Structure formats: structure tokens, C-alpha cells
Amino acid sequence: MPSPTLIRKRLNELELRSRLRARPRVQGRVLAPAGAFRRLPRAAGLYFPFYHDVLPEYATDLRRHLLTFRRHGELVSWDEALGILAGRRPMHGPVFCLSFDDGHATWRDVVTPVLHEIGVPAMFFVTTDLIGRPGNLTWSDCRAMAAAGFDFGSHTVTHQRLADQDDRAAAHELIDSKHEIEDELGSEIRDFAAPYGHPAVDYGRRDVEIARGAGYRSFASTLRPAIHAGDSPLAINRQGLHPAWPLWAVRTRIHD
Ligand SMILES: [Zn+2]
């Protein structure tokens, strides 16, 4: 029998979850007018749209976003995107590289079925302390996704803002998360996405240097402009989206 405190906690979680669930469409409508004078990109450039949780009611919305990106350009894996940055792969138009943050159980139940269905590669940035918690994946889920061909990167151990951490704590977030994912998945982890992701506000040069020293080859922010061949893989810009947003709202984040 769960205690009254536990029940109250669970009810609070449910209430919070339903409030958050109600918000993205509202948020999309608020953003949409700003997208009226924007268009999805036509010029060559690398875009890294990313999402968090994708609840089942948004599966068709996610599919619609991805099919729209594909009408405008190629959808590539993280490796392929880094190949373009390094100049090893040509880029003739817009190119999109998809990622997901945190560790949501809906990656297993909602996201990967959509990605399989339409043949889209993706990177999953994991906050290691979330794995195994309610509403999140287990390591065995992650292993199954990796075996199915999806990529994994680190999104720290505890999802703290790196800029608030002393040197030792920042190193723990960057290095111990890398090692834990490597131990669990049995493959090298070389890509990192910073929580919150704004350079100078949420992380700094120190954190990029720790990442480089730890063996990461890429470091992602949440700055929005497209990046191009010759730009540094340690300063990848990603555009945060919610699947519930109408395309007008998507165009406020991804445009040329
Ligand atoms: Zn995050």
C-alpha cells in the first residue's frame, strides 16, 4: 500500500505532466506568427533539430516534421554530419541531423518506431542518472536501440548547468557520464550535448576543453544558426523543437 505522501507526490507529478502536455501546442501557436515571414531553408547548411520527450499523441506530428525536413534536404547521421563539417562529404542543400535529449521511455515506445518506419537516423544524448528512473529508459533499452543502429552521446550525469559547477564537478559530469555509457553500451562515446546549451550562460570554454581532453570529438550547444563545412565540431548548433508545434513555429527555429 503506497503511503499518502507517495500518492500525493504521484498526483503532483501527474498534474505537472498534464499541464506540460497542454502547453506545447499553445507554445507553438504563440511562436507561429514569427514564422510567417520565414521559410524552411533552401540554401546549403547543416541543421541539427532536436527534441526531448515525444508522447504517443505526438507521434504523427513528429513524423510530419521529419517528412517535411526530408522534402527540403537530406537527413543524415551524426557521423555523416561530422563528415560534412570536416569537408569529407559534399553538401548541396540543407542537411538535417536529428537528436533527442535526456533519456525518455518514449524514445523506445514512440520515437524509434517512427524513425524505423521512415528510415531516419538519430543521435540520443543521455543523462546517465535518469536511466532506470520512472518514465525513462533502462540500460537494456539503450542497448537495444544501439543494436538497432541508433547513436548515443552524453548529456552529463545529473543535468546540472555546467557553468555552475566547479572544475571537479564539471569533469565528473563530462567524464563519468561518458564512461558509464561506454561501460553499459560497450562502445566509445565521443559526442556531447550541454544541458540548456547556451554558451557563456550554461557552459564555457573550460567545459569544451574538459570535453576535448576526455576524448569527445563533438560538443553541441543550443545556438540556432546553420553551420557549414569548416566550422568546429566542438561548437555544433542545435535547434530545439517540440513535435506539437505547427510548421510555422518550426520555421522560427530552422530557416535560412
Ligand atoms: Zn536536457
Would you kindly provide a written description of the structure presented here, covering whatever features stand out?
39% of the residues are buried. This protein has helices spanning 4-31, 59-72, 78-85, 106-118, 139-147, 167-185, 205-214, 247-253, and strands spanning 45-47, 49-51, 74-76, 94-97, 99-102, 123-126, 151-154, 191-193, 218-220, 239-240. With 256 residues, the chain is of the alpha/beta class. The protein has a single domain (4-253), classed as TIM Barrel. It contains eight helices and ten strands. β3, α3 (78-85) and β4 form a beta-alpha-beta unit. α1 crosses α8, α2 (59-72) packs parallel to α4 (106-118) and α6 (167-185) packs parallel to α7 (205-214). The strands form three sheets. A five-stranded parallel sheet has the order 7-6-5-2-10. 42% of the residues lie in helices and 13% in strands. The longest helix has 28 residues, at 4-31. The mean pLDDT is 92. The structure holds zinc ion. Zinc ion is lined by residues 101-102, 155, 159, 195.
